[in-house]
Amino acid sequence: MIERRPVLTILSHLVLLLGVLIVAFPVYVTIVASTQTTAQITQAIPMSLVPGDNMLQTYRLALFGGETESGGRIAPAWPMMWVSLVTALLISVGKIVISMLSAFAIVYFRFPFRGLVFWMIFITLMLPVEVRIGPTYEVVSNLGMLNSYAGLTIPLIASATATFLFRQFFLTVPDELVEAARMDGASPMRFFWDILLPLSRTSIAALFVIQFIYGWNQYLWPLLVTTNESMYPVVMGIRRLISGDAYTEWNVVMATAMLAMLPPALVVVLMQKWFVKGLVDSEK
Amino acid sequence: MEKKVRFKSQWLPWVLIAPQLVIVLVFFFWPAGQGLYQSVLEEDAFGMSREFVGLQNFSRLFNDSLYLESFQTTALFSILVAVCGLTVALLLAVMADRVWRAANIYKTLLIWPYAVAPAVAGVLWVFMFASPMGVIAFALRWLGLNWNHLLDSRDAMTLIVVAAVWKQISYNFLFFLAGLQSIPKSLLEAAAIDGATPWHRFRTIVFPLLSPTTFFLLVINVVYAFFDTFAIIDATTHGGPGKATSILVYKVYYDGFKAMDMGSSAAQSVILMVIVVCLTVVQFRLIERKVQYA
Amino acid sequence: MNFKFSIAAVASALALGASVSTPAQAQTEIQWWHAMSGALGEWVNDLAKDFNDSQKNYKVVPVFKGTYDEAMTAAVAAFRAGNAPHILQVFEVGTATMMASKGAIVPVTEVMSKAGIKFDPAAYVPAVAGYYTAPNGQMLSFPFNSSTTVFWYNKDAFQAAGLDPEKPPLTWPEVIAAAKKLKDSGHKCPFTTSWISWTQLESFSAWHNTEFATQGNGMKGNDARLAVNGPLQTRHIQNLADMAKDGLFVYKGRANAADPVFVAGECAMTTGSSALYGNVKRNAKFAFGTSTLPYYSDVSGAPQNTVIGGASLWVMAGRKADEYKGVAQFFDFLSRPEEAAKSHQRTGYLPLTIASFELTEKSGFYKANPGTDISVTQMIRKTTDNSRGIRLGNFVQIRTVIDEELEQVWAGKKTTKDALDTIVKRGNELLERFEKANR
Q1: Side-chain half-sphere of C203: how many Cα atoms within 13 Å?
Q2: Is 0.85 exceeded by the ipTM?
Q3: Nearest Cα residue in chain A from C62
Q4: Closest CA–CA distance from residue C73 to any residue of chain A (Å)
Q5: Is residue B94 part of a domain?
Q6: How far is Cα C334 from Cα C142, in angstroms, rounded to an integer?
Q7: Would you say residue C11 lies in a domain?
Q8: Which terminus of chain A is less hemmed in, N or C, by CB atoms within 10 Å?
Q9: Which domains does chain A have, with CATH numbers?
């Protein structure tokens, strides 16, 4: 806030609140549905927006598994959440590491085929996943990576969003910093480690959140690559609860969906301290 | 957009890009090549009988008037998604940047849509719009709007645009906010002291300095609208009513995954890829010129 | 950022994950990929468990692979990579696709005979098994979960509208009359339907002993072509279009989007799958009834029999002979009268064998659960060429074409004749392609 403009501030809050209401409404629906019973959900036209009183039971059932009152059996969600957690961490950390290094090379070095390399990496965004998912499965299968964390994560590290973002960011870093480093006789990696890395904190934080969520929400790829139930991520678990023909325990579905939404939200909260305003300013 | 100052090393850059390049070659180019090769084949689902048919898959697509119509549908959809997603997110980010202390709470609340898995989001939208549980559909009808996304093509398009944008707002918001927060406060303070209004400051300082982020998000949003939206459509409208919401990538997904028509799906992927590559090249050549990298 | 820690964590996790541990197996494992979720997924797991407990040599491992499409995609990818499952559950509209992939599957008759297990195709319910049988009598896939089209109605709504809740409409004119009365009494959605292609065209045609496609609905050859723009179907779709205009028929979406609408009580009558029974019984707050699919009494040959929906189990090629023995034993287990009867009563799917039907009848199940035998009685009849079943290539796409064109009719954008002709035109293009690709 530069100066005090109360009207603008109030307006800001209003706009934000409206934004939150609109954007968060579906999430509210999910929460409410997870506190009701399946009968309440399916028999109401439309579904009631008032929270029910079935919350604890439903969440306990979703998280730890067990039997519902109608005799249905629910598999516990927490092992699947663990798989999702490891997968998400591996993907986000892996992606950030290799992308930062690539972007650093592309922006700060001149080497033959530099432009080609950038486009090769960048073009991975341009092909729909459907057409290559079958052959990718074959590659993974041939490398013996089925039903493993390696198979779940490494093929997904290939994409280019992170490299693109880091490239954008590195291009904004002032040249004087590089010159100063070179005059001090610092090696490129020293420059990278001591100067570029701290400057990139905000981008890294944003990317970490996005990539963590991306890894956490994988459904189609794990569906193909796993046959072992102990390697199922949580999104697969949610889909497995929803039946087209027969009985679906909707409240458990919604509760599991809420549980699945918590870790990503947690990651956002934990990354807050990295979103420090004016970082570039103070480093100059 | 070239750095004038660089490091000199012959071998280091190759070492740095090696990990990503290897993964991209093994897990993208190799399978993608195989997948794209299917576009010139006519084969059964399991690949037991293969026949090389040249460009037949392509010519069949271009002779299909419904396929050609979906170009228009896709263009409309992508423009709506990119424009709405970017403007709403920018507005929210600018507002959140102002109320810095409370921004954390808003940020956490606004990121939730992105945290919802696409596989689950589809279920949620059905829950909100489809009978009998559909709260929003009920509210719209109660307000007197004759909402029927099952038979009215405009309602259906509105639904998928809203669903697609909903998720992207969080994504764009996050990056816009990060971009806004790396703008040096001193610049803005100086301008304020000179008497510039907030709007003037936004126009002359914030927006230009934000342009690298905006450019990044523009490219990403276009790619998203073209490629990642089939799941939402599959869950809500299935491309209907008729073919009103059948965008190009949905047909790729449908032909590849439901109809088991790999040849056609691969051919369409080639076409789609060419379109998006062209769009991206255009964006890089024309728009990036206006981006200020400081 | 604690880089080094992160790198160490990544490295160790990768090392951990990359080692795929396969414990030593005394039993032969049989991979069964299915698309059953929710309560049906539990049913599948129980079947596997019961079989595994009943013998020591084989272990059936059921693996949930998403929806029918996703399971198919996964199986195709796995097959091309050389590690297909043993058993794959494929929906009924994928039958022609599976059959056309010569060498990808092993017919069930062959699996059973090679394993030396007595197998009598006549023991299975004719209209069910016939769908999955080749013209030469060889059973290609194992009918696992089959349902058929029935009529569901809300007895309470009937009462409120002045209709007799114990007398469901049997013919389409009666349905229209009932819908009119419901609408007059203020009901907002008298009639809707699920799976519109299946209930209003495919099963509808079979029920009236009319062909849906030539060549015995495709059973006799790949040169079949659609015949849905015939006079009977045109008359029926026009009736539905008129009902839609009068607000008697409310379209609630593709696939089975209309099911929850009926269960919630929003719509009073619907035609849909018999497998809806479990859902309706548990969730409906109203008294409900089920009846046979409505027909036109002035059409000779009606009512004949309805067409099944659901899925069957296919055996994939490329596995070891010993493993196929296990598959054969598993199929034999599923066919036992007590097992088949148990499954039928639990899920609402049709009984697999005639013996299991008789067993269920004797146990008084149908008396205790009125309406659950409607689906069966519609199927235990001698079939004709027009009603044995439908086997068309690219059937998934044909159904989508039907959905799309009919939506234009309900929206008032196309005439019935125009829509049906377009369906035939677009459908025949798909059939021609299939024929050419599988010559």
Answers
A1: 30
A2: no
A3: A227
A4: 8
A5: yes
A6: 10
A7: no
A8: C
A9: 6-74+242-261 (no CATH), 85-230 (1.10.3720.10)
